Amino acid sequence: MSIQDIQRRLQQWAIESRLYFKENAEVNALHNWHLLLPMSVIYLVILDIFFFMVCPWIPIPVCLPCMISFLGFHILLTGFIILFHKKKMPIWAVQTVITVFGFEILTYAGYLELSAFPQMPTFLFPLCLCLMTQIYTRSTVYRITEIIFPFGLYLLFSFYLKTPSLFKIDLFILCIAIIISGLAVFTQTLYMIQNDKNKRTLQKLCELDSMTGINNKAAFQCQAEEYMDSHERESCALAICDLDNFKIVNDTYGHRIGDEVLQAFSRQLHDLADNDDQIIAGRFGGDEFVLFFKQLSKEEVLQKLQCLHDIEGFKFEVTCSIGVAYSAHRKSNMVQMFDCADQHLYGIKGDRSQAIAIADAD
Are 144 and 182 in contact (CB under 8 A)? Predict the structure, then answer.
């Protein structure tokens, strides 16, 4: 693999990881916030046991003012987390608290090691450094922040407190720990991105009609009702499209030709809806298709539907009848709009003089 390939992969990873954490920031923040409380309480218990039982028993010399400062700070942090753990915190606040917690753990580990084992190569701090990268799923920037600052502080104190030979050993060990942590972050993020892609692909397949590639009934209803619930006073329209004499096409030319007719019509729906956020397309089953229009006037809805009346590419004539329910003031729900559109669809079914019937659902 060339250097250019490695650079390209790293750039792609950086772009995809940024998009992943941006799109999943709220879910990850909520999960991390719930996980933070038990972690903080457990760490507080561990600190108490270590400072008041382990250190005097071994014995390990610990500076009392530093010990009180460490405990006091962590008690305040734990109290803050307990106070707000049932509230929905902003994403940046959750990320910041977790970064402070990680910074705190690494600082404590470095302090204990330098005070208890000043004449030995480092082992506790690099271990904590590697472990901290695996605890919380969050943006890489926060992970790097909570690692780099304790890393720099530890090296600074190691330089002043240890002999030159021990400092070089510490520097070598910590560089290895940083490399391991970096690889862990890279591979873990790569796995999450790939897993997220697989989930999105599977979700998309579950939402699409297998033959036509447009939304199935459940996905269409979910998207349309979600819009109606969140835009209570905005206009909308529901169109039901039904192919004329489709049973005769199946009986005369066979079901394979019938499938081709459905696919040809679905391509026209794709052309209409794929590049327009104001339109949702779906298939309810058989030769019945539906369209949902957001915030469009009656004239705009009719104009967009004109292209669906004739389906070209066949030796025989294929046409479509369309019933439309239009709600200007959103006084109707989805069921009422569907009944209204369905009623007007079958009122013009087979009427060559009228291909589209639009009615006021309100």
Answer: no
Domains of the chain: 3-205 (no CATH), 217-360 (3.30.70.270)
Contacts of 290 (CB under 8 A, 6+ apart): 220, 238, 239, 240, 241, 281, 282, 283, 284
d(CA 74, CA 68): 10
Burial of 189: CB neighbours in 10 Å, binned 0-12, 13-18, 19+: buried
CA 297 – CA 286 distance, rounded (Å): 29
DSSP three-state, residue 225: helix
Torsion angle of the four alpha carbons 79, 83, 88, 89, in this order, in degrees rounded to the nearest 10 = -40
Residue 362 and residue 355: Cα distance in Å, rounded?
22
CB 33 within 8 A of CB 89: yes
- What whole-number distance in Å separates Cα of residue 309 and Cα of residue 123? 75
Q: Tens digit of pLDDT for each residue in 186-224? A: 888 888 888 888 887 777 777 777 788 888 888 888 888
Per-residue pLDDT at 167 = 92
Q: What is the pLDDT of residues 40-94, one digit of tens each?
A: 998 888 888 877 787 777 776 666 777 788 888 899 999 999 998 888 888 888 8
Q: Which two tokens stand for residue 54?
A: 């382990």
DSSP string, 8-28: HHHHHHHHHHHHHHHHTHHHH
Rounded CA-CA distance 314/267 in Å is 14
β partners of residue 240: 290, 323
Average model confidence (pLDDT) across the chain: 82
In angstroms, the CA 310 to CA 325 distance is 21
Give the whole-angstrom CA distance, residue 158 versus residue 152.
Answer: 10
Beta-carbon-side half-sphere exposure of residue 237 (alpha carbons within 13 Å): 26
Instruction: Report how many helices (DSSP H) and strands (DSSP E) the chain contains, helices first.
Output: 13, 5
Rounded to an integer, what distance in angstroms lies between the CA atom of residue 238 and that of residue 220? 11
CA distance 286 to 261: 11
